[in-house]
Specification:
Strand content: 25-35%
Radius of gyration: 16 Å
Order of helices and strands: EEEHEHEHEHHEEEHEHEHEHH
CATH superfamily: Aldolase class I
Mean pLDDT: 91
Structural class: alpha/beta
CATH architecture: Alpha-Beta Barrel
Distance between the termini: 15 Å
Number of domains: 1
């Protein structure tokens, strides 16, 4: 059995790590280079960097900041935000990223996933999906959760997989930052319908929530920000807790 992964997430705005609730009420959470180095030392399995306003502001990801973080970590590094052409992917990989996360650009032009997978390999493509439930099901959003689309979560995840995405990073927008647990029912449905790994995001508030995401949500990895940034939970303690409950993790 593959080990379950614990992934801290650096949401970046104006070069600083920030964190919000339900994609709003943003507050400062520290220096991303220092935080990335800390999580690498603490035993994080991977690190995710999301430039959360790049798409909305119509600009590219902060490549120089990516380069600085990459120099201070020794774990796989995923970068997203404002990536909408192959030269963006090439620049980020050259700066030290191992994978790129595409969200709005892929929803607007699904063939972009095919292009990245064809040129760099499926292992490089993480399809991030921000979604929340409504009367029509789980609706996908673009521009950092600002604009709803006509795409639905489960259909879009399946399409992304078929186009060559190597992983799905699913954030439940109405769980984001509220620390009441992941959207386990939706996670389990995604995991059952896909062959590629699913990363749970949005809602981590306790060690139990991670256990639920892996057992009930069938997730391959769980991502969190608030708990780690504000030192409410240490990665080593979380992994020990999970291991004691029979969940395979890298200690």
């Amino acid at each position: 059995m593959l080990a379950k992964r614990i992934i801290p997430c650096l949401d970046i705005k104006d070069g600083r790590t920030v964190k919000g609730i339900n994609f709003v009420d943003i507050r400062d959470a520290g220096d991303p280079v220092a935080l990335g180095a800390l999580y690498s030392r603490q035993g994080a399995d991977e690190l995710v960097f999301l430039d959360i306003t790049a798409t909305h502001e119509g600009r590219k990801t902060l490549v120089e900041l990516v380069k600085k973080i990459a120099q201070h970590i020794n774990i796989p590094f995923t970068v997203g935000g404002g990536i909408d052409e192959l030269k963006d992917v090439e620049a980020l990989l050259a700066a030290g990223a191992d994978k790129v996360s595409v969200n709005s650009s892929a929803l607007k032009r699904p063939g972009f996933i095919d292009e990245i997978a064809h040129n760099f390999g499926a292992q490089v493509v993480v399809c991030a999906i921000d979604a929340k439930p409504d009367n029509a099901g789980w609706t996908c959003y673009v521009s950092g959760g600002r604009i709803p689309t006509d795409k639905k979560l489960f259909d879009w995840a399946k399409e992304a997989e078929s186009r060559g995405a190597g992983e799905i990073l699913f954030t439940s927008m109405n769980h984001d930052g509220v620390k009441r647990g992941f959207a386990c029912e939706a996670l389990a449905r995604l995991s059952d319908s896909l062959r590629i790994p699913v990363i749970a995001s949005g809602g981590a508030g306790s060690m139990q929530h991670f256990e639920d995401a892996f057992i009930n949500g069938k997730a391959d990895a769980a991502l969190a920000a608030t708990l780690f940034h504000f030192k409410e939970l240490e990665i080593s303690s979380l992994k020990k807790y999970l291991a004691e409950r029979g969940i395979v993790v890298r200690l």
